[in-house]
Write a structure and sequence with these properties.
The structure is a single chain. This protein is mainly beta. Helix content is 9%, strand content 38%. The strands form three sheets. Strands 1, 4, 5, 7, 8, 10, 13, 14, 15 and 16 form a ten-stranded antiparallel β-sheet that branches. β7 (81-89) and β8 (95-101) form a beta hairpin. The radius of gyration is 18 Å and the shape is globular.
Length: 199
């Protein structure tokens, strides 16, 4: 089944004035059981080849049942589109929500990249946390204090630590419980899409 199309980029005419080149931003990797994911770069096929399970979900008309389907890497996706509703499974009970993004040409799903990823880790067990890493550090070790040391330019409080500039291409968010343990992690690349367009 096709992922839900949330938005499609609008075409733009004319030439843009030349802008000074930006310093390339660091892309902090996420790893699942040894498979490294760079948001905005890693393709669906790369993750499938590394043995990760990727599914999409579809609700019944009455919204009482949800059916999951394995993604089809041969499925053609539209150009300049952002698809949500996907999941990467880590264990039987723990997964990451993902969005899949295409560029200026239509591509097969396997060639589309992961543009967004979010983990909810509130009920994750220790063995699950040991399978996850963010920027080379196991999630089980990445508490609030460690996050502040690793990312001193982020902002927040004792319960959250996140990147702040809307001018940057990437957004990072980490949430923590009262003991300082990570319970949420999201990584997103910002894309120039028209949020007002309809599927």
């Amino acid at each position: 089944m096709v992922l839900a199309v949330l938005m499609t980029a609008a075409g733009c005419g004319g030439k843009k004035e030349s802008e000074p080149e930006k310093e390339p931003e660091p892309v902090y990797p996420v790893s699942i059981d040894g498979a490294e994911i760079l948001i905005g770069e890693t393709t669906v096929q790369t993750l499938l080849d590394q043995g990760l399970s990727i599914t999409v979900s579809e609700s019944s008309p009455d919204m009482k049942e949800i059916t999951q389907y394995e993604v089809d890497p041969e499925l053609e996706l539209e150009a300049n589109s952002y698809y949500s509703g996907g999941s990467i499974w880590i264990t039987e009970h723990c997964f990451a929500h993902i969005a899949i993004v295409t560029d200026e040409e239509a591509v097969k799903m396997g060639d589309a990249v992961i543009g967004y990823m979010e983990f909810s880790l509130v009920s994750a067990e220790d063995e699950t946390l040991d399978k996850l890493m963010f920027n080379g550090v196991p999630i089980s070790e990445l508490n609030r204090e460690k996050a502040g040391e690793m990312f001193p330019d982020f902002s927040g409080d004792e319960n959250m630590w996140f990147s702040t500039s809307v001018l940057k291409d990437y957004e990072y968010f980490m949430g923590f419980d009262t003991a300082g343990n990570m319970i949420k992690l999201s990584v997103e690349k910002n894309y120039d899409v028209d949020w007002n367009n309809k599927p």
